[in-house]
Amino acid sequence: MPQVSFNELTTKVSAGSDLASFPTDTVPALAACPEHAALIFAAKQRSLDKPLILMAATIKDLLDYVRGTEAERYQWESVANQYFPGALTLVLPASDRVPSIMHSHDPTTIGVRVPNHAIAQAILARTGALATTSANLSGQPPLQTMTDIEAQFPTVLTLTSQDTQQIIGTQNPIAASGIPSTVIRWRDTGWEILRQGAIDLYGSRHKD
User: Fold this and answer.
1) Domain boundaries, the chain
2) How many other CB atoms are there within 10 angstroms of residue 35's CB atom?
3) Is CATH 3.90.870.10 what the domain over 3-195 is classified as, yes or no?
């Protein structure tokens, strides 16, 4: 796996020429700019009927990708303000800005998330929203370490250890849980849980 500088990784991913992998607060992500999400499907050998999610550094970076009434947006942002950044994915009505390849199974919705991890946050703050999924071949468990990802995806870009340390600095970064995010979908009457993951609707973290 090519290890590159922060500037090179964010520039190439933003240009659509490369895939990147970076840690998050759940499991490591594979990421591409939304218009080049086909790179993810090819790398993972993933069926096009399985959706990707949009990940960004802030909820504001995601609002152009969803559509709803003022009242709905108020409810969505209320939940986002409570749980973001964090291990919760909101499935919301999609705007026409979302490339169809990201959600061909259901073009009316898109999953969005803001991860609680310094490296992911730094990358996403530079690139804007990215199409993401877990780093693994389709049907296999999510890979948990960069060593395993390097072996599985030798052409995917990751940060050098020097750049990683510069981003983290003296922070004590939140450790990845290894548990996928909880997924909830907006319905007219409220939220529907599609997948119980690292957090629940009351904000408590999953405990093994």
Assistant:
1) 3-195
2) 11
3) yes
